[in-house]
Design goal:
Length: 257
């Protein structure tokens, strides 16, 4: 199979320097969906409108997916707040890998930078750990810059226009309709996973952990957990930033940044 334009660019720019350490992947969802995952003890594929098949999505190195609220009202149900599953990247099967949120690409949210006539296949990252680490090394230099979204690469006169468009997106500065997913590696899998096999840790509201059934599932599957303080009559979307902070603390605790 021919390599994508992005993979060819990364391979051409890659040197024999030491690659960054492997970071975990993250699957974030609303608490109600997270509870269902815990009840099933399985991360399951579901139908994707972009690729028209059953898939499971992760973001590499940071929980870039923000839980949304239809009305953004304050409430008293902690299960409307985000739950984040921290997954061992080396234990999941890579179906495809991209440098950004493919849903936003499909919706034309990157049009200010990436022409909607460009083929998404030109942006495939090589579907293995080496491909992801090489991409981060070339585009960000190291994990620290990747997590902070500080690209170290500038537009390249020798590169295809699709690549320079991506570089412009990575270096964007201003106000846009997209979010951090635009600069976060998306891992797509086409398999289900028992949580005991792939989940290292889970971030969840302290009020949800008080459910004895939740605690029992985590203990049974030997999954660590990090809680955040939930306050009633707060907006669920306010906790997206808390998830990001807790995830970064977890990564730094592993001394792999």
């Amino acid at each position: 199979m021919d390599k994508s334009k992005l993979t060819s660019f990364i391979n051409a720019k890659s040197k024999d320097d030491k690659l960054p350490d492997v970071l975990p992947a993250f699957h974030t969802c609303q608490g109600l969906l997270g509870l269902k995952i815990l009840q099933d003890e399985t991360l399951k594929i579901k139908y994707c409108n972009v690729f028209k098949k059953d898939l499971l999505y992760f973001f590499y190195g940071k929980p870039a997916y923000p839980v949304k609220s239809k009305n953004d009202k304050s409430g008293t149900n902690p299960l409307l707040c985000p739950i984040c599953f921290i997954v061992n990247t080396q234990k999941i099967n890579f179906y495809e890998v991209y440098p950004f949120d493919t849903g936003a690409f499909d919706a034309g949210m990157y049009d200010e930078f990436i022409n909607n006539k460009f083929n998404i296949n030109d942006y495939k990252v090589e579907s293995n750990i080496q491909g992801i680490l090489s991409y981060i090394k070339v585009m960000f230099g190291d994990n620290e810059n990747y997590i902070k979204r500080e690209s170290t690469i500038t537009e390249d006169a020798t590169a295809d226009e699709e690549i320079n468009a991506l570089i412009s997106l990575l270096n964007c500065d201003g106000e846009y309709q997209f979010d951090e997913r635009a600069c976060t590696v998306e891992i797509i899998s086409n398999k289900n996973y028992a949580i005991k096999d792939v989940v290292e840790c889970i971030i969840l509201p302290n009020a949800v952990l008080r459910d004895e059934n939740v605690k029992n599932v985590l203990d049974k599957n030997n999954i660590k957990y990090i809680t955040y303080s939930y306050r009633t009559l707060t907006k669920p979307t306010l906790y997206n930033g808390v998830i990001l902070e807790k995830a970064e603390e977890y990564i730094r605790g592993r001394e792999e940044v």
